[in-house]
Specification:
By secondary structure, the protein is mainly beta. The protein folds into two domains: 3-108 and 150-203, Lysozyme-like; 218-295, SH3 Domains (SH3 type barrels). It has four helices and 24 strands. It has helices at residues 46-53, 153-169, 179-182, 196-203; strands at 3-6, 9-12, 15-16, 25-28, 33-38, 64-66, 72-74, 80-82, 89-90, 93-94, 100-105, 112-115, 118-120, 124-126, 135-140, 144-149, 175-178, 235-237, 241-245, 254-259, 263-269, 275-279, 285-289, 293-295. The strands form eight sheets. A five-stranded mixed sheet has the order 7-6-11-5-17, with helices on both faces. It has a five-stranded antiparallel sheet with strand order 23-22-21-18-24, with no helix packed on it. A hairpin with a 3-residue loop joins strand 13 and strand 14 (124-126). Bound molecules: zinc ion (ZN). Zinc ion is lined by residues 37, 179, 187, 189.
Length: 296
């Protein structure tokens, strides 16, 4: 799919993408951030959430909705403030509606297993009836311990293309966050199966191949190093949760995650790519991206 942006409107293979104007918008802005969201709705019915986000009573909107089949509908020009972030704060910035583009992905949000292959949440997800549905149980500090519907391949492909097109149109964009980053405790979207770090790498111009899809991921295992390397902390993790990878790039598997504020020992830095080889306080070794670490 070839996406481009002209005059703050989305074009798909040279034709304007479907557009449904939302009244829920404010003044102009210069976006430097993308906030990724889930609609918390039935993935097979995108008309419902587009209808809602274009109704005045909703008092909510986003710039685009990406449906389950990868179709993208735009609701407002990308240089206009939409109402997707709500009361929001991350690092030293607040009120993210004033400088961010909101992308909604059709996804039900957290699910609860109610039978073999059947899950319930805002709707019933039956993997027996819909083999394209892949559900995985994942627990994170921000999301809690739930079952989650993996995004469809078309949806992720559309989202990847859109993040790249937005970066091309608005070079100031350098940050991609989930709604849960800016509204901790209140929001859990995007769900933990969304490749947020890949989207961040896209806007930094550092994206490699997409991460391994959820169903092919190995079970997480505890990180135990055979011989404990020396540990002399010289840096601090400044991401909410930082992925520790097996190699210097997001194409390498995630070995574990390191919480915000953890002191780590940087052993080697690639000046070109800004990937760091590190040791954690528990003796695990691996690679992290330097953008999420503050060196002493
Ligand atoms: Zn959201």
């Amino acid at each position: 799919m070839k996406l481009s942006i002209q005059n703050h409107l989305l074009f798909h293979d040279g034709k304007q993408a479907p557009y449904r104007a939302t009244p829920n918008r404010s003044g102009l802005m210069n976006p430097d951030t993308i906030i990724d969201h889930d609609t918390a709705s039935n993935p097979l019915d995108s008309s419902g959430d587009i209808g809602w986000l274009t109704m005045p009573v909703a008092q909510a909107s986003a710039h685009v909705v990406i449906d389950w089949r990868g179709g993208i509908t735009q609701l407002a020009p990308f240089n206009v403030q939409c109402w997707h972030a709500g009361a929001s704060k991350y690092g030293n910035r607040q009120n993210f509606n004033a400088f961010s583009i909101g992308i909604e992905h059709d996804n039900p949000g957290y699910l609860r297993k109610i039978g073999e292959g059947v899950y319930s949440g805002v709707c019933v997800i039956d993997t027996n009836k819909n083999p394209e549905f892949k559900v995985a149980r994942v627990a994170t500090r921000e999301h809690g311990d739930h079952s989650w519907l993996a995004y469809s391949e078309q949806q992720i492909a559309a989202s990847v293309a859109l993040h790249a097109a937005l970066k091309a149109a608005y070079p100031a964009i350098n940050t991609v966050l989930g709604h849960y980053h800016i509204c901790p405790g209140r929001k859990t979207d995007t769900n933990p199966l969304f490749p947020l770090s890949h989207m961040q790498a896209i806007v930094l111009g550092e994206a490699g191949a997409l991460p391994v899809p959820v169903e092919a991921k190995p079970e997480p295992k505890s990180i135990v190093a055979p011989a404990k390397p020396s540990f002399v902390p010289d840096a601090t993790v400044v991401a909410d949760v930082l992925n520790l990878r097996g190699g210097p790039g997001i194409q390498f598997a995630v070995k574990g995650s390191i919480p915000f504020g953890t002191r780590i020992d940087v052993q080697e830095k690639d000046q070109l790519t800004n990937w760091l080889r590190i040791v954690t306080p528990f003796g695990a070794t691996g690679y992290v991206h330097g953008g999420f670490v503050r060196l002493d």
